[in-house]
Each structure stands twice: as C-alpha cells, then as structure tokens.
Amino acid sequence: MRVYVDFDDVLCETARTLSRLANELFGRNVPYEQITRFNLQRAFHLDEEQIETLMRHAHESSFLLALPPAPGAEEGLRRLAAAGHTVCIVTGRPVSTEAASREWLARRGFTSFEILTVDKYGRARGERTPDGRRALSPQEFAAIPFDAAIDDSPDALDLLAPRARCRIFVFDRPWNAAYTLAPNMTRASGWEGLTALLHAR
C-alpha cells in the first residue's frame, strides 16, 4: 500500500508544544486538552500580530527539531516500512521547513521516506525553496494516489474525503472530536491501534 502520513500531531506533538510556547510568549494558558479548534489563533485567543509571531517561532528549525514524537509513532513507521508499505510523509508546513522536517526524520532513522509539501490551508503564497520547488496545490495533490491516509486536521480531512478508494484514518485529537466522518474514514485513538487497523485491511 501507498500510505500518506501527516507530520504535525500525527508523527510529533506539535500542538502540545505550541500550547507551552503560547503561554511563554503571551501568557495564554490553554492546555492541550482544551485546544478544541484547529485554528490556533482562535484556540489561543491571539491577535494578528501574536499569531504571526507564534507561527514564526513554530517554523524555526530549532523548534521543529525539538518536537517530541507522538507515542508509538516511530515504531508505527518502522512497522509500516517493514510490512512493505510505501510511506509518504505529507505536510502543510511551509516549504522552507523541509530541511528541518527531513532532519527530524533522519535523527530517528527515517531517511528514505518521500516528503510532500501540500498547500493544505491556503497559506503557501507562492513560497519556493532555493532550488525553485513549491508546495503542491490541492488540485495537484488530488492527482497523487494513496491507498490509506492518516491525518488529524479537519481541513486536510476535507481534502481527503473525496478519495473514495482511499481508507482514511482520523488521528484522534481534541480539535477533530466533533468532525463528521465520511464513509471512507475510521477513527484511530493512537499509533498502536492505527497500525493494527492498517494491517487488518
């Protein structure tokens, strides 16, 4: 199978870390469990300048490289690869963060996975890497086939929903608790259950 695996909050604990950062920078004490909106500006009650500052910090290499892996994520990736699946890491991060994303994976022994940067949230603004690459548009991304996909973001799940032949796993997070699942979607409470579901396909 060709398996799409999201990066933030599927492979690593981004929101938990951003919760601490928002508290450090702006005194916004919003525990992870209370992040019930994917829109972090609203979740942390930030103004435009504050959310820009937060996201600037969030996309620095030092921040990204320090993100802890989600429980079971490293073992889950190893099991997928060992089972012969083709793993593709799909992220909505800016293309400028690709080197840090690759380094995060490499530090954990994952050097062969493809990384696709997709403009999942309409934020790319034409940004390009030094060698001219840019994020894929949703339309370009729709042409790339996957047998299974794992994501937590309601916006990304909406992009995936039309893929009738793709089995989509909704990685449980507080901000997707009220998300209405499409017929091709299944909830996964974490990596242990997720790999069992994938292997039971």
Which helices and strands, and how do they pair?
Elements: E1 2-6, H1 14-26, H2 40-43, H3 48-58, H4 61-65, H5 73-82, E2 86-91, H6 98-106, E3 114-117, H7 138-142, E4 148-151, H8 154-160, E5 167-171, E6 185-188, H9 191-199
Parallel strand pairs: 1-2, 1-4, 2-3, 4-5, 5-6
Q: What is the number of domains? A: 2
Q: What does the average pLDDT come to? A: 93
If you consult CATH, what is the topology of the largest domain?
Answer: Rossmann fold
CATH architecture of the largest domain: 3-Layer(aba) Sandwich
Overall 3D shape: globular
- SSE order: EHHHHHEHEHEHEEH
Describe the 3D structure.
The protein is α/β, with parallel strands linked by helices and 201 residues long. It has 2 domains: 142 residues, Rossmann fold (3-Layer(aba) Sandwich), CATH 3.40.50; 52 residues. It is 36% helix and 14% strand. A 6-stranded parallel beta sheet has the order 3-2-1-4-5-6, sandwiched between helices. Strand 4, helix 8 and strand 5 form a beta-alpha-beta unit. The protein is globular and about 45 Å long.
